[in-house]
Amino acid sequence: MRIAIQGELGSFSHEAALKFEPQATIVPCALSADVFKRLENTEVCAAVIPIENSLAGSVVEHFDLLFQSDVQIERESLLRIRHNLIGVPGSKVEDLRQVLSHPIALAQCRRFFDQHPRMTPTPFYDTAGSVKHITGLGEKEAGAIASEQAARAYGGEVLAAGIEDNAANFTRFFLVRNRAKVQPVPEANKVSIAFTVANRPGTLVAALQVFAEHHTNLCKIESRPVQGQPWEYVFYVDYQVADPAATSAPLPQLRQKCILVKELGHYPAAQPLP
Fold first, then answer.
1. Does position 227 have pLDDT exceeding 90, yes or no?
2. Which of 74, 151, 231, 268 is most buried, most CB within 10 Å of its CB?
């Protein structure tokens, strides 16, 4: 099974993809748009994308791509994000002067940098890519922050493990397939949708009231601008039901309140991590 991810091999997306499908062949892509393009062109069987982080918030580009593409969410999972300081083999923590990583990873390790003022945090395009870069250089003064998977992938050495500020750091990932390839899952109890409403007072309230009337647990709501239509928005909603047979119950009534409703996926809710 070929699964596309955005980023380099060894990234957290790589780790999440193997959690979904341990025997998968991972296809790294430079851009998220490339991931969806490969999926729609059937160059890969599926894609794994991060949709939100418990500390940094939503990956808004992926909401837009889900809405624009003919794909559907099949499963979700939660991944505990553990940031590790990685150097070239033989280096030590005290050797490092420059540490590269994705800006979000750097921001989530501020306490570590406060404790090591001789290190300069340096933004890089990707966590795993930063490990690939420093191991290619082979300099003991350069380090990176990434996953253990990245250290294994590029021959780096973990110099300090779990250096993130907050241990409650989780990312939610979706396994996405072409809409025509997704099979119904009987135990699906969670739904992701996108909808638009007329720009009039009370229309959004009326739409949200539908979920309350059907006793659904509204887990998330996110708004994104409609491209080319200033001050118009698409609303993304995740909701959960107690009875999997009732996942579609709110949708007919919701369509009466909305201009457009797009189902992005029916899937089993991920179990909370300890």
1. no
2. 151
Burial 94-117 (b: 16+ CB within 10 A, else e): ebbeebbbbeebbebbeebbeebe
Dist. CA 219–CA 111, nearest whole Å: 31
User: Does the domain formed by 2-80+169-181 have CATH 3.40.190.10?
Assistant: yes
Q: Which fold has domain 84-160?
A: D-Maltodextrin-Binding Protein; domain 2 (3.40.190)
Which positions are catalytic?
171, 173
- Amino acid found at 169: N
What's residue 267's pLDDT? 97
Give the pLDDT confidence of 99-134 residue by residue, as tens digits: 999 999 999 999 999 999 999 999 999 999 999 999
CA nearest 69: which of 22, 29, 105, 34?
A: 34
* Average pLDDT estimate for 63-83: 96
pTM of the model: 0.92
Alpha carbon of 14 to those of 4, 78, 160, 186, 218: distances in Å?
Answer: 9, 13, 21, 27, 29
Do residues 26 and 35 make contact, with C-beta atoms less than 8 angstroms apart? no
